[in-house]
Design a protein that fits this description.
17 strands, Aspartate Aminotransferase, domain 1, 2 domains, 15% strand, PyrdxlP-dep_Trfase_small
């Protein structure tokens, strides 16, 4: 794929709706791989098989070139200075916001830049916390929490969508409840109507489990939350990079996602929020560039998104993320999802045929191309090191989801996660290595 010729081209996005093919195919993926220099790396003399995109994806050249070109040609502070460079930098910064907004179906002023999804989720919880102590005036009263109110999460959550809500409950006196999973890891949707009640003020849940790759029934949870009059907060970290996502169609109030999981740079994430809600929320971080008037006694704040973007922003990272979005749209999110579904099925079938391997997650639920498994008799850290000796990069540990692992009866697992640049040969190399693990560690006896 041709690298972007300039920042404007890199920041523009094609219409994802024009991509109608069901899936990528092997020859296309082989061509795409050439856009990712790191995939030519060798690890211990073995070709790199990168199956850890669920943690951090790799970058195509156009993303790196977009960032470099920004620094070479447009580097200046945004929303400040009237000189040419400052104006051009601001234009590229806001063009990046527009590109990312279009990618998820939002309006430009409904996207707030953050450092990552964790910051985006903390932004929401601290805004609600500030509203609960009287900040924000009458418009913010809708966000006030106190004793008797309830926050609902699920047992699937990444710690980033659990601990901030624990802390909000502690600060406000609200109660934290959760929708459990069953023994296979399936969310107990049959219990959701009992848990989401008239006391519920917030329902926060993952779109796609970062451990199991399973896709949550967003429509059902949004319907229950609306009936209860609760706000909905979606963790889109594992869905936005891998599936076509339209926040308006999903009907959620807020969504957080990270650039580094969707071919973009590290240090950049975004919060989507409905315009009327963002404009009513008190800010999280305060300082320069988010105010209208300041006296020695008080300050007044700009409308969203600026009210949540105090200080010097992540300018080059935003430009790089826009380039990543353009790349994903050119390939086609539906086609990416189709290819990953194929790879995921290949992994699941292959793992099921290896003695001593337990594939985690329920049968029959839609998944992205992620497979998480337990190797009988071998610790996941040892599994990961053995696979690394074969050049296969996977994630090991509890994947920042200790409660889910506890519910599944394990303390740690091995996770292989695919993306648009992975091949069938990558999957087969991983399966071949996994098949040798127990024998190497003498766990077959």
């Amino acid at each position: 794929m041709a690298a972007a010729q300039n920042v404007s081209e890199a920041s523009s996005s094609l219409d994802a709706g024009t991509q109608h093919a069901e899936s990528l195919d092997a020859p296309e993926v082989a061509r795409l791989r050439a856009d990712f220099p790191i995939l030519a790396t060798q690890v211990g003399g073995q070709p790199l098989v990168y199956l850890d995109s669920g943690a951090t994806s790799q970058n195509p050249r156009c993303v790196m070139e977009a960032e470099q070109q920004f620094y070479e040609q447009f580097n200046a502070a945004v929303h400040r200075g009237a000189h040419t460079l400052a104006v051009e930098a601001t234009d590229h910064f806001e063009a990046a916001r527009a590109a990312v907004a279009r990618f998820v179906g939002a309006a430009e002023d409904e996207i707030v830049w953050t450092s990552n999804a964790t910051e985006a989720l903390n932004l929401i919880t601290y805004a609600f916390s500030n509203a609960s102590i009287g900040r924000g005036g009458p418009d913010a009263e809708r966000f006030r929490l106190g004793p008797g109110d309830e926050i609902v999460v699920t047992e699937l959550e990444h710690h980033a969508n659990l601990i901030p809500w624990q802390e909000l409950a502690f600060r406000t006196g609200a109660d934290l409840r959760y929708i459990p999973v069953d023994a296979t890891g399936a969310l107990r949707m049959d219990l959701a109507p009992e848990i989401i009640t008239h006391r519920t003020r917030i329902v926060a849940f993952t779109h796609v489990s970062n451990v199991l790759g399973t896709i949550t029934d967003v429509a059902a949870l949004v319907a229950l939350a609306r009936e209860a009059g609760a706000f909905t907060v979606l963790d889109g970290c594992q869905s936005v990079p891998h599936l076509p996502v339209d926040v308006k169609a999903l009907g959620v109030d807020f969504m957080a996602f990270s650039g580094h999981k969707m071919l973009g740079p590290t240090g950049i994430g975004a919060l989507y929020g409905r315009r009327e809600l963002l404009n009513a929320m008190p800010p999280f971080l305060t300082g320069g560039s988010m105010i209208t008037t300041v006296t020695m006694e008080r300050a007044e704040f700009l409308p969203a998104p600026n009210r949540f973007e105090a200080g010097t922003q992540r300018i080059s990272q935003a430009v790089g993320l826009a380039a990543a979005v353009g790349y994903l749209e050119e390939v086609g999110m539906g086609r990416i999802a189709g290819w990953e579904e194929h790879l995921g099925a290949r992994m699941a079938e292959g793992l099921a045929g290896i003695p001593g391997i337990r594939l985690l997650g329920p049968d029959g639920l839609a998944r992205i191309g992620t497979a998480t498994f337990d190797v009988e008799g071998v610790h996941p850290h040892d599994v990961g090191q053995f696979l690394d000796s074969r050049g296969v990069a996977v994630r090991v540990g509890h994947h920042c989801a200790q409660p889910l692992h506890r519910a599944l009866g394990v303390t740690a697992t091995t996770r292989a996660s695919t993306y648009l640049y992975n091949t069938e040969q990558d999957v087969d190399a991983m399966l071949s290595a996994v098949a040798d693990v127990r024998g190497f560690f003498g766990a077959n006896a």
